[in-house]
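Lay summary. Proteins are chains of building blocks that fold into shapes, and those shapes determine what they do. In this project we predict the shape from the chain. Here is one chain we studied, written as its sequence of building blocks.
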Amino acid sequence: MTLGHRLAQLDNTNRATGNGARRPRPRGPVDELRDRAKDSLLKDISKKMGGPERSPEQLRRLVTSELNRLIDESNGLLTEEERERVATMVIDDVLGYGPIEPLLADPEVSEVMVNGTDSIYVERNGMIELTRIRFRTEDHLKQIIVRIAAAMGRRIDESSPMVDARLADGSRVNAVIPPLAVDGPVLTIRKFAAETLTADELVRKGSLSAPAMNLLAVCVRGRLNIMVSGGTGTGKTTFLNVLSGFIPASDRVVTIEDAVELQLRQRHVIRLECRPANIEGRGEVGTRDLVRNSLRMRPDRIIIGECRGAEALDMLQAMNTGHEGSLGTLHANSPEDALARLETMVLMTGVELPARAIREQIASALDLIVQLERLRNGARVVTSITEVVGLSDGELVLSDLFLRRFEEGPDLVSVLEPLDVQPQFTPKLAKHGEVLDTEQRSPRTGQ
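And here is the predicted shape, written in a compact code that computers can read:
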């Protein structure tokens, strides 16, 4: 067990009352020494931490030395375990993320949501739960937020009370402070997955069936344009990363993301990331700017981490002008909603196009929509794989190839079943040497 996990256990001394409320933890000698050690270190931090950059171990020794001096002054009332605990608390407060440091170190935690000083939630294995960890004061929480923003070269204060960026390890951070956050500072951290899931693991977890994954594999190799749709936290980026694994190594791929999350295994990959405006409000580079620029980079495929605005038109035009096999994600609750959102996003460009012209662009560009959903038990699953067939009487026509069927009962038992439907995209696959076995829904490479 790591020191961070021991700290989490030691610091969870709040106990629930009979009605479910939590009583404030009484301050003891550990809290007092922690505050004194931190204040003493910060008062003369330039002197104690100056000179060449120190390693984490050197910083730990520095804090421990200061702590030992304070303990000696207090007649050595703490045990060795308590000394170690205080040293870790001080290091986390001065150099790290304070009391949420052990949560960020926990591999089972995928998201940390700080709703206030004593309301900290985590997502663990797809389920959200309340922790007993807390910040001492609102100022304590705000100090951590300011430090996170400063480390990313950003500023957060009353004149700029929001920040949205990523940590050095790729984790996405969003923070809001008063006056926008009425009840105090709010911090949300979506952790970056150190290890990406594979197609086999998704099948083993029940996110989709082997035949469905086989269908998607041949569609990616056959250069169909695919959008992954779903709500917040449904695993769209993870699934997009899995799909990208089927792209041949010979293809030149350009990825465009608001914050880098994709981890492609191919070598011929160019990663582009949006840039927010600086503190003067200048220098912003958005997704649409990067999509337009990527067209001059001779990509075989373009992958857009999330399509959310006017870049939708540029993406559709790219799919229609020689960049087949492109991938992307968008927020929508169903394939029908996904098409409606795409239409709305095209209108956000300000270009006055009739609805029929926009739908023709969508029908011509898009081949498949993979719909994801997070179930009430936390499982993230594919609920449908839908073909965009074309236009009929000015309306977009969809055809489900796979659909998830839920069995009746208290348990969420479901299966992703193939439907007896003949896909219309088989001629496109044939152009790239791919043949789909429509009876078994399992692909084989054409000769």
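What the prediction tells us: The CA atoms of residues 402 and 418 lie 4 Å apart.
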